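ok, trying the design again with the full structure, not the truncated one.
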């Protein structure tokens, strides 16, 4: 795949992404994207992305067929860290970012402990000489604390949130499975908080 920015011009996918945030082009129907990133720490490179998955949520349900998953190759992660038997063909990090941006569009991003995930994405975008994410975002743990009236700095694992909200927890050994579990948890909180 030839990347336009090698020649010094801004790539079209980035122009398309930025254009989504023009006030005149905002979609009336609110779309959320619940996403999960699987990462590994590599001694020389720090935190690297192994896979990224997202699921669209519109109104009070998961949007059927509105999902993405990218397995990232070329990151020197230990094979043992990649639980990838049935995850499909891997792509380079740049292609994973293009797929992710094309998928999320101007949706509000949702994840648990989301600040870390946003920084992983922004670091990947920086390696491509692009800007930072422009999307609004919500943290599932923060939503849970708002619902419970908790005003401290505590953080919750996805397992703890699922237990507290009695959310089904299918086998979560991939970013795809974790994103699905988070989407179910988010839907419960969205209803309780009338988001």
């Amino acid at each position: 795949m030839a990347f336009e920015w090698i020649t010094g011009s801004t790539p079209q996918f980035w122009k398309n992404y930025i254009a989504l945030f023009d006030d005149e082009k905002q979609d009336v129907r609110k779309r959320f994207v619940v996403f999960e990133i699987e990462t590994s720490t590599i001694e020389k490179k720090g935190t690297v992305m192994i896979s990224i998955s997202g699921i669209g949520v519109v109104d009070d349900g998961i949007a059927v067929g509105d999902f993405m998953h990218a397995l990232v190759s070329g990151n020197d992660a230990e094979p043992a860290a990649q639980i990838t038997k049935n995850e499909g063909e891997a792509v380079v990090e740049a292609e994973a970012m293009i797929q992710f941006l094309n998928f999320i569009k101007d949706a509000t991003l949702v994840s648990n402990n989301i600040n870390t995930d946003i920084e992983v994405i922004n670091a990947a975008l920086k390696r491509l000489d692009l800007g930072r994410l422009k999307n609004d975002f919500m943290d599932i743990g923060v939503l849970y604390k708002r619902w419970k009236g908790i005003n401290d700095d505590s953080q919750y694992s996805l397992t703890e949130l699922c237990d507290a909200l009695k959310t089904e927890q299918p086998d979560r050994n991939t970013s795809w499975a974790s994103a699905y579990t988070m989407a179910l948890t988010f839907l419960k909180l969205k209803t309780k908080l009338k988001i």
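Keeping the full-length input from now on. Confidence is low (pLDDT under 50) at residues 78-86.
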